Every structure is written in C-alpha cells, then in structure tokens.
C-alpha cells in the first residue's frame, strides 16, 4: 500500500520498513516476567476484592497455583541470610498441619513441604490447602516471608481487631470506585485490623436496601475473611466467630 505508511513487511529483508512521520513506532510486546503469580491453569479475575480463581484441569475439582520463583527486580539484591539453626534448604517456620494465612486467600492449612525441580533448579515449596475455595497453593520457602505468608495472628492482634470494630466509622469523601479499591487492598493485605476497619466503615449501611451490590460484596468478603481467622485463633466454628464479630459491630461506638 504505497503512501499509507501503516504496514510493515518484516518478511522481506531487502525492503525498508515504511512509517509515517506522524505515526509513532509500535511498542515492544515482550511479556513481563515480573508478575508474582504464575498461573498454572487458565483463569480470570472476578472482582477487585476476590483473589483470582483459576479453572481446574478436566477431571479435577481443585485448582492448583504455584507462586513464581522469579526474582523481583524492584527487590533488594542483598543476599538472603540463612536461618540461625538447621540447614538452609529447610523452612523451620512452617510444618505439615500448621494453620497459616495467605493474604489473598485467607486461612489455609499446610498440606506438605515438598521439593520440585523447576528450570533446572530445586525448590522447597510450602503446599497450602484452602478447603473452602478448593484451592492448593505452592509457595517457595525462600519467598514465603516476602509473599506475606504467616502464622495465625496472636490473640492480642485479634483483640485489637475487635476493638477496631467498636470504633467510629471513618468514611472518606471520595468516589466509591476509589474507596472500593482501598477496601479491596485492605482485605487482601491479610491484616486483621485493616479488615476490621473495612467492616467498621461499611457496617453502618448494612441494613440499607439501597446499598449497592459491590458494597455488600466487599462487606461480606471482609466479614468472611476475619471470621475464618478468628475461628481458627479461638478454635471455634465460623458461625460462632461471625456472631461475635456482629455483636462487636452492633455495640455502641466509642
């Protein structure tokens, strides 16, 4: 197409690439290799407050995700320090059967500590099972702390979260889309106090029939996330933990 300047013939080495002066060069389409999660099964995001759900393979009713072992270019390049005791290839922080919290998925149980050979390297992986979501997550032990994987919160932390529920709501004067994003970040931070702040701020409209669907969805996600950890810490069931949270939310504000 002479004169158009919009097409490139990359197959013919002897023909120069023609481009209009007003047309900027095409951007590079190299895939990014800095993403935190490597998706093992095809999937899609459902909402701003839910972690990604991935399609299971045929014949399987569970989803399997492996956290990426690629280094983060924005992270420090200082060498990692080996634990004070035990061989450096082991992870003394977690053991099979431990209840743990992963920020984007909540409370799970360590199903195993396994080794896998990936790209010519041997990785120690913490295998976490989330029964409520029928999800299995594998996190390299070297990335466990950076990914936010942690043990259950202490009773003191949960008491602080319960006290937060009794405080006055602090709703910023901002567009709902911006507030919804902030609430989603707080929920997926995995911090009980931050999740309690979301419940406190949104509980005032819990009985409002005109409340939007997205607001109700965020509130229910925060309530579910905090109730599961409270139930695990107090060794009770989720329904009892939910009733306790609701009792604190309904108490007069201080």
Descriptive account of the structure:
It is a single chain. This protein has 254 residues and is α+β, with helices and mostly antiparallel strands. The chain has helices spanning 144-147, 155-165, 176-189, 192-202, 213-234, 238-250; strands spanning 37-38, 43-44, 53-54, 63-67, 99-102, 106-118, 121-130, 135-140, 150-151. It has a 7-stranded mixed sheet with strand order 1-4-8-7-6-5-9. It has a two-stranded antiparallel sheet with strand order 2-3. A hairpin with a 3-residue loop joins β5 (99-102) and β6 (106-118). α3 runs antiparallel to α4 and α4 crosses α5 (213-234). The protein is elongated and about 55 Å long. Residues 93-203 form the CarD-like/TRCF RNAP-interacting domain. Residues 66-84 have a biased composition (Low complexity).
Please outline what is shown here:
The protein is of the alpha+beta class.
Task: Give the tags.
single chain; 254 residues; alpha+beta; Thrombin, subunit H; Methane Monooxygenase Hydroxylase, Chain G, domain 1; 2 domains; seven-stranded mixed sheet; two-stranded antiparallel ribbon; 6 helices; disordered N terminus; CarD_C; CarD-like_regulator; CarD-like/TRCF_RID
């Amino acid at each position: 197409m002479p004169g158009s300047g919009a097409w490139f013939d990359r197959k013919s080495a002897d023909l120069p690439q023609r481009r209009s002066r007003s047309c900027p060069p095409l951007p590079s389409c190299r895939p990014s290799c800095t993403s935190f999660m490597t998706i093992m099964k095809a999937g899609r995001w459902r909402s701003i407050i839910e972690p990604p759900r991935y399609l299971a393979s045929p014949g399987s009713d569970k989803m399997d995700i492996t956290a990426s072992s690629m280094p983060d270019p924005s992270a420090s390049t200082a060498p990692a320090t080996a634990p004070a005791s035990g061989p450096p290839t082991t992870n003394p922080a977690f053991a099979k059967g431990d209840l743990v919290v992963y920020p984007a998925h909540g409370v799970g149980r360590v199903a195993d500590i396994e080794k896998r050979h990936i790209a010519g390297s041997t990785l120690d992986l913490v295998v976490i099972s989330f029964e409520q979501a029928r999800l299995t997550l594998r996190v390299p032990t070297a990335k466990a702390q950076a990914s936010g994987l942690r043990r259950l919160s202490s009773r003191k932390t949960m008491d602080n979260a319960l006290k937060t529920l009794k405080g006055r709501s602090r709703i910023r004067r901002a567009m709902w889309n911006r507030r919804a994003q902030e609430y989603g970040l707080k929920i997926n931070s995995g911090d009980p106090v931050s999740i309690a702040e979301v419940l406190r701020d949104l509980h005032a409209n819990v009985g409002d029939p005109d409340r939007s669907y997205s607001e109700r969805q965020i509130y229910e996600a925060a309530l579910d996330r905090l109730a599961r950890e409270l139930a695990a810490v107090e060794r009770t069931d989720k329904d009892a933990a939910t009733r306790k949270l609701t009792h604190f939310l309904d108490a007069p504000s201080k």
